[in-house]
Amino acid sequence: MFARPPPLAWLVLAMPALLSACGSDKLVESAAPDDPGTPFPGVGSTSDGSSACGYVDTLSVERAACGFQTGARAADTLGDLAQARTAIKHVIVVVHENHSFDNMFGVTGHGLDGLAPGTSNPNGLGGSVSSFHLTRLCTSDPEHSYEAMHAEYDDGRMDGFVTVAGSTAMGYYDDADHPFFSWVATTFASADRNFAAVLGPTWPNRDYLFAGTSNGVKETGERALDAPTLFDQLNAAGVAWADYSNGAAPALQTDLGWATNPPQIKPYADFSGALASAELEPVVFIDSGEDTHDEHPGADGIDQGERFVADLVARAFASPLWGQLAIVFTYDEGGGFYDHVPPPSACIAAPAETQFDRFGFRIPLIVISPYARAGYVSHEVHSLTSITRLIEG
Questions:
Q1: Nearest partner of 76 among 12, 21, 23, judged by Cα
Q2: CA–CA separation, 128 and 322 (whole Å)
Q3: What would the pLDDT profile of 65-94 be if each residue is shown by its tens digit?
Q4: Which pTM does this prediction carry?
């Protein structure tokens, strides 16, 4: 259905690799309610990820070679997902704004590929700026346009961040700055090779999440997407979905150019009731609130977004639907913050989309679910469209 063909775990991912494929009803083991080492007491424990079983990815080589054509279905590119479908009835997607992997988890450890000691970027004046711990939870907004990000990438040298975006780009947060995020990343399943879909800003990346293509859109605000979307597909299949919005202008409306909101756009205040009453739609997107709780640099701090997600997860734990759902948490792009891993090449969505042949910088990805592989870190290449394909599957 979508324009971008699915390579390796690059575009479609075996995101089931982050989930236990057993199809059992066994939830994540519980820690002691007052365990002082658990920032979110009473739930979860880490392990080596050995709880996963059953899923064998036999199509990764063909995906890596861009062997599937536009329109290939999840069953074609990922194989038999019957067990995952049996277990997971609700997917909740939360996408925050503009933080790279190294900016958020570069010093977390836990097997995550983070910052090396002494990492630096030239400052253009004969000196350099080393990576450093940010002392403010809300920073200035580093430059992150399409052209800026390509200059930061600098043909894979990853040395243009300071000269393009300033010294703030080399800043990072540690676990004490976001204890809940660190806890879910190390308790459930996470990935350290999850890339933005486009080496560019928010709109083209969210376009790929919603439609598998940006139809040539490179910049935020450039123009609305004109392409079939995941939501068209869900409507055609009769699958209920909702976007619960904590603001006046949901990302779906702005990116996709909807003049009016369809009935599936609902106030975030309704989300809690839907969870508690077990009436939640099978596919849910959450808009945390533009410039209030989405962690956008220059507008709101990471603590605002962390509190929002922690509250959402707490409500999910208390819901009768907890045993049937997966929460996928990520960011839409790196926001101009440094990351040390050069993004790999990507299969283009269509012959005319040759300028979109490379992924964007790494962004965090966490799957919070009773079926998540406990404490697991995936080193396979994923991207925003991996979420799209998970929903398709």
A1: 12
A2: 48
A3: 777 777 777 777 777 666 666 788 999 999
A4: 0.86
How far is 352 from 168, CA to CA, in rounded Å? 36
Burial 158-189 (b: 16+ CB within 10 A, else e): bbbbbbbbbebbbbbbebebbebbbbbbbbbb
Give the tokens for residue 36. 């002082």
Per DSSP, 323 falls in state G
Residue (of 149, 161, 181, 150) closest to 295 by Cα position: 181
CB-CB neighbours of 58 under 10 Å: 11
φ/ψ bin of 221: left (φ > 0), alpha (ψ from -120 to 50), beta (otherwise): left
Q: pLDDT band at residue 40, thresholds of 50, 70 and 90? A: very low
Picking from 323, 39, 306, 314, the residue whose alpha carbon sits closest to that of residue 187 is 39
- Kindly state the tokens that stand for 141: 């907004």
pLDDT of amino acid 256: 83
Amino acid type, 291? D
Q: What is the DSSP letter of 41?
A: T
